[in-house]
C-alpha cells in the first residue's frame, strides 16, 4: 500500500501547486468555420496543438476561441468521416483572426484518432496494432441500449448469455472467454472482475463517446487479463453546449411458439453538457432508467431472460488552470436489480428458484494532464470502483442462500509521453491496481421441534471469500518510424500479491515480465502489413465467475480455485493485411488478420460429483495448456455516400492440449465460425433503412440436467445448431428549430433464430443456454437533441 499512498500524495501536491491564478486576458481570438465541398460541418472538433484548449463547431459549422495564447500556434480540426487538418497561425494580443478549414472526406475513418494502441493519441493508420472502434452511430444502427448489445458488431467479438436465471453475460474475443479480455473505462482497468460479471449490461450506450477494441495481447501496457485483447470504453466529454434525450420500447418474444407472455423492455435516457464561454470549464451529465420484464421462452414460468431494473446517473467535469493543463473528474453510479427464476411476486426464500441480485456500483476518477515542451504530455490519474452487491442464489424455499459481496478496487498511476524527434515517441509510467473483495453468506434462522415445541436458533454470517490483490507495474513503449516501417517495442513488469484472509497459507505472489513487439509496414499507400508478438498472464486470484452460482432444484454449481493454482501465461502472435482503396466514388476496405495464442498452465474446470446437499463444485485447475488460432476478416464497402456496409467474419479453433472431463479437447461454448454485418441506406431526405445480422456457428455445450436432449453424448455434450440473427430498422430524422428529432422502429431477430430446447422446471440446468441473447423483438424509439 506504500505505492498507493505515494502516488496519491504526488497527485495532490501537483494539483495543489498548479491551481494558480488565471493569466490576464489576451483578447487574441480566432473565429472561423469548417466546410467540405461547400457544406458546413457541424460538431467538428477544433483545438490548439500542445495545449488543452478545444471546442466544437456549432450547428452552422462555425466556431470561436477567445483569449488564446499569443504567438505561433497550430490549430487542429477533426471530425469523424473527414481527414483532420492542421494549420499554423500567428496570434497577437488584441487582434481577432478568421480561418476557414476545407476538409477532405475520410469515409473509411482511417484518420480517426485512437488512444488504446499505446496509451496515447495517434491516428489509426499510424498505429502498429489494429484498433477497431464502435461509434455512437453503430449503437444507434443496432438499437443498442447498453454496451454489451453493440460489442458483437466488431470483428472477433461475440456476446453470449450464460445463465437463464440471472442473465450473466460475457463477450468472447478471438474465441477466448470474457475474463481473458481487459475492460477499461477511459483507459483505466477500474472495472473489477465481480462488476464485470454483469457489467456489459450495466453501462448505458448514451454515456459512451466510442469504444476502442484492440485484439491480441495487451498485458505489456494494461497488465493482467489482457490476453485476448482490450475493450476501452471512452466516456463522453463536454466540448460544447448540447443536449439529447430519448426513449425506447422493446416487445420481446413476439410470435414465439410455446413462449409465455410477451415481455416489455423500456428505457429513457438523457445526456447534456455545458461549457463556459472561455472553454476553461465544462460539465456533462447523463442518465438512464431501464426496466425489462421476465421472458419465458418455453412456457414453464421460469425465466430465460431475467427481469431487471437499472438506474444510472453520471457526470464528467473539466477545468483548465492554464493553456497547457487540465483537470478532469469522472463519476457515475449504477443501481441495478435483477431477479431470475420463477414466482417473482413471492419472497425470495419462498420460491422454487431465485437468483436475485441488487448492485450498487459507484465509480469515480480524477486525471490531471499537462503538456511540456512542444507536445510532451504528463498524465497523473487515480480512480476507484465501489461495489456493494446483495444476492440470493437459492432453490426449494431455502433460507440459507442470502449473501452480500463488497468489492472495492483502485487504480492510480503516472504516465509520460515524450516526443523524441520527429519520428519516434516514448510512453512510460508506473501504476498500482488494488482490489479488496469480501463475500459472505448471511445468517438465517433454523427451526426444530423439541418436546412438542418449536425452538429457533440463528446461524451466524459465514465468510465465503476475503481476498485482497495488489499489483504494482512499470511499463514503457517506444515507437519509431523509419520511412515506410514503424516499429513498436513495449514491456511491462508486474509484481502481484494476493492475500487470502480466510485460508492460511494460500497467499499467492509473483513477478511477471510481459513484452510486446509490433511492426507495421506501408507496402503501398493503400496496403498496410502488421505483425506482432506479445506475452500476457492471469493471476491465480478469485475471478468474476467464482461468485456466480448456477442454481436449480437439482443442484448448485459453485466455483473455487485449486489451492495449488498457478498463474496462467500466454504467447500470442498476430499478422494482418489491411487494404483500403477508393475507386471513383466507391470506397472499400479489406482486413485479413491471423491470430495464434498458446496458453501455458491454462485454467480449466475440474467437474466434481454432487455432495449430500446436491452441490457440484467446479474447481479451477491448471491444465497442460491450450491453443486458440484462427483468422478474422473485416470488409467495408461504401458504393455511395448514402450507403454504408460493414461486415466481419471469424474462422477459428480453440482446444486444450489434453482431453478434458467432457471427453474432448474442445473449449466449450466456442463456435468455429461467427460473424456480423450492418448496412445503412439513407434512401430519402431524413430517412435511413438499416439492416443488421449476426451469425453464430455450431459449438459444444455442456448439459447437466435430467431431460433427454437431441444429440446428447455420454459425456453430457450437445453440439448446438447454428444461428442467424437478422434485424431491420427504419428511422426518420427531422430538423426542428436548430435541433433534431428522430423516430425509429424495427425488428431484432426477425426470423426468431433462437434456442428451442431449453430445460424445463425447477430441476433445469440454467447454464444450458446458447445462441442469440434475444428472441424476435419489435422496438420503437424516439430521440431529441441538438447533436443528432
UniProtKB/TrEMBL annotation:
Question: Which CDD domains does the entry link to?
Answer: ligand_gated_channel
GO cellular component, as recorded = cell outer membrane
What's a GO biological-process term for it? siderophore transmembrane transport
Where would you say this protein principally sits, based on its record?
membrane
The reply to whether Cell inner membrane figures as a keyword in the UniProt entry is no
Signal sequence region? 1-21
Assigned keywords, A-Z? Cell outer membrane, Membrane, Receptor, Signal, TonB box, Transmembrane, Transmembrane beta strand, Transport
Record Pfam families: CarbopepD_reg_2 (PF13715), Plug (PF07715), TonB_dep_Rec_b-barrel (PF00593)
Gene3D superfamilies with a match to the protein in the record: Carboxypeptidase-like, regulatory domain, TonB-dependent receptor, beta-barrel domain, TonB-dependent receptor, plug domain
Q: Where is the TonB-dependent receptor plug domain?
A: 126-230
Kindly give the membrane topology term recorded for this protein. Multi-pass membrane protein
The TonB-dependent receptor-like beta-barrel domain sits at 361-750
Q: Listed GO molecular functions?
A: siderophore uptake transmembrane transporter activity
Task: Tell me where it resides.
Answer: Cell outer membrane
Q: Which family does it belong to?
A: Belongs to the TonB-dependent receptor family.
This chain belongs to the protein called Colicin I receptor
Q: Which organism is it from?
A: Saccharicrinis fermentans DSM 9555 = JCM 21142
Amino acid at each position: 500500500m506504500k505505492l498507493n499512498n505515494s502516488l496519491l500524495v504526488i497527485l495532490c501536491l501537483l494539483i495543489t501547486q498548479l491551481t494558480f491564478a488565471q493569466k490576464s486576458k489576451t483578447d487574441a481570438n480566432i473565429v472561423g468555420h469548417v466546410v467540405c465541398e461547400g457544406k458546413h460541418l457541424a460538431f467538428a472538433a477544433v483545438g490548439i496543438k500542445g495545449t488543452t484548449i478545444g471546442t466544437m463547431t456549432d450547428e452552422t459549422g462555425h466556431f470561436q476561441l477567445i483569449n488564446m495564447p499569443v504567438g505561433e500556434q497550430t490549430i487542429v480540426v477533426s471530425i469523424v468521416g473527414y481527414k483532420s487538418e492542421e494549420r499554423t497561425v500567428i496570434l497577437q494580443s488584441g487582434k481577432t483572426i478568421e480561418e476557414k478549414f476545407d476538409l477532405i472526406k475520410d469515409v473509411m475513418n482511417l484518420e480517426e484518432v485512437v488512444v488504446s494502441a499505446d496509451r496515447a493519441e495517434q491516428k489509426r493508420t499510424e498505429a502498429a496494432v489494429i484498433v477497431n472502434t464502435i461509434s455512437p452511430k453503430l449503437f444507434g444502427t443496432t438499437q443498442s441500449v447498453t454496451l454489451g448489445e453493440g460489442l458483437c458488431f466488431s470483428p472477433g467479438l461475440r456476446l453470449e448469455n450464460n445463465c437463464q436465471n440471472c442473465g450473466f453475460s460475457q463477450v468472447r474475443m478471438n474465441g477466448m472467454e470474457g475474463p481473458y479480455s481487459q475492460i477499461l473505462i477511459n483507459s483505466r482497468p477500474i472495472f473489477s472482475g465481480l462488476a464485470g460479471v454483469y457489467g456489459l449490461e450495466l453501462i448505458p450506450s448514451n454515456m459512451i463517446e466510442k469504444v476502442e477494441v484492440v485484439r491480441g495481447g495487451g498485458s505489456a501496457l494494461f497488465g493482467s487479463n489482457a490476453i485476448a485483447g482490450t475493450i476501452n470504453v471512452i466516456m463522453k466529454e463536454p466540448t460544447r453546449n448540447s443536449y439529447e434525450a430519448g426513449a425506447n420500447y422493446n416487445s420481446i418474444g413476439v410470435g414465439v411458439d410455446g413462449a409465455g407472455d410477451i415481455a416489455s423492455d423500456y428505457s429513457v435516457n438523457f445526456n447534456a453538457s455545458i461549457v463556459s464561454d472561455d472553454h476553461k470549464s465544462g460539465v456533462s451529465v447523463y442518465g438512464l432508467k431501464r426496466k425489462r420484464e421476465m421472458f419465458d421462452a418455453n412456457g414453464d414460468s421460469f425465466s430465460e431472460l431475467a427481469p431487471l431494473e437499472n438506474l444510472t446517473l453520471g457526470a464528467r467535469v473539466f477545468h483548465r488552470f492554464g493553456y497547457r493543463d487540465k483537470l478532469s473528474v469522472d463519476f457515475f453510479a449504477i443501481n441495478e436489480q435483477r431477479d431470475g427464476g420463477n414466482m417473482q411476486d413471492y419472497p425470495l426464500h419462498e420460491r422454487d428458484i431465485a437468483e436475485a441480485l441488487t448492485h450498487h456500483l459507484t465509480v469515480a476518477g480524477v486525471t490531471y494532464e499537462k503538456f511540456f515542451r512542444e507536445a510532451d504530455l504528463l498524465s497523473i490519474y487515480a480512480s476507484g470502483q465501489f461495489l456493494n452487491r446483495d444476492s440470493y442464489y437459492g432453490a426449494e424455499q431455502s433460507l440459507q442462500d442470502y449473501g452480500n459481496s463488497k468489492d472495492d478496487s483502485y487504480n492510480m498511476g503516472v504516465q509520460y509521453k515524450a516526443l523524441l524527434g520527429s519520428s519516434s515517441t516514448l510512453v512510460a509510467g508506473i501504476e498500482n491496481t488494488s482490489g479488496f473483495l469480501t463475500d459472505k453468506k448471511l445468517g438465517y434462522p433454523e427451526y426444530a421441534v423439541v418436546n412438542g415445541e418449536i425452538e429457533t436458533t440463528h446461524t451466524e454470517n459465514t465468510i465465503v471469500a476475503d481476498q485482497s490483490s495488489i499489483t504494482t507495474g512499470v511499463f514503457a513503449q517506444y515507437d519509431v518510424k523509419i520511412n515506410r516501417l514503424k516499429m513498436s517495442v513495449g514491456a511491462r513488469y508486474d509484481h502481484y500479491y494476493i492475500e487470502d484472509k480466510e485460508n492460511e497459507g494460500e497467499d499467492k505472489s509473483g513477478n511477471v515480465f510481459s513484452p510486446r513487439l509490433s511492426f507495421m509496414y506501408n507496402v503501398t499507400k493503400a496496403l498496410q502489413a502488421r505483425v506482432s508478438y506479445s506475452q500476457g498472464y492471469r493471476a491465480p486470484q478469485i475471478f468474476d465467475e467464482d461468485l456466480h452460482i448456477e442454481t436449480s432444484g437439482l443442484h448448485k454449481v459453485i466455483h473455487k480455485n485449486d489451492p495449488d493454482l498457478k498463474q496462467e501465461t500466454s504467447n500470442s502472435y498476430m499478422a494482418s493485411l489491411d487494404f483500403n482503396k477508393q475507386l471513383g466514388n466507391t470506397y472499400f476496405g479489406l482486413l485479413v488478420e491471423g491470430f495464434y495464442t498458446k496458453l501455458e498452465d491454462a485454467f480449466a474446470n475440474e467437474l466434481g460429483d454432487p455432495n449430500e446437499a446436491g452441490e457440484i463444485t467446479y474447481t479451477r485447475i491448471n491444465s497442460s495448456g491450450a491453443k486458440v488460432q484462427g483468422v478474422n476478416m473485416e470488409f467495408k464497402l461504401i458504393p455511395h455516400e448514402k450507403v454504408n456496409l460493414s461486415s466481419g467474419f471469424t474462422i477459428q479453433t480453440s482446444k486444450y492440449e489434453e482431453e478434458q472431463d467432457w471427453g474432448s479437447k474442445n473449449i466449450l461454448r466456442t463456435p468455429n465460425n461467427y460473424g456480423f454485418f450492418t448496412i445503412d441506406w439513407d434512401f430519402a431526405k431524413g430517412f435511413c433503412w438499416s439492416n443488421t445480422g449476426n451469425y453464430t456457428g455450431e459449438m459444444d455445450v455442456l448439459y447437466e440436467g435430467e431431460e433427454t436432449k437431441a444429440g446428447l453424448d455420454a459425456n453430457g455434450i450437445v453440439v448446438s445448431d447454428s444461428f442467424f440473427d437478422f434485424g431491420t430498422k427504419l428511422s426518420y430524422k427531422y430538423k426542428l428549430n436548430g435541433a433534431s428529432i428522430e423516430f425509429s422502429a424495427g425488428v431484432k431477430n426477425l426470423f426468431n433464430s433462437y434456442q428451442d430446447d431449453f430445460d424445463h422446471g425447477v430441476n433445469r440446468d440454467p447454464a444450458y443456454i446458447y445462441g442469440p441473447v434475444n428472441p424476435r423483438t419489435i422496438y420503437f424509439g424516439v430521440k431529441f437533441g441538438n447533436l443528432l
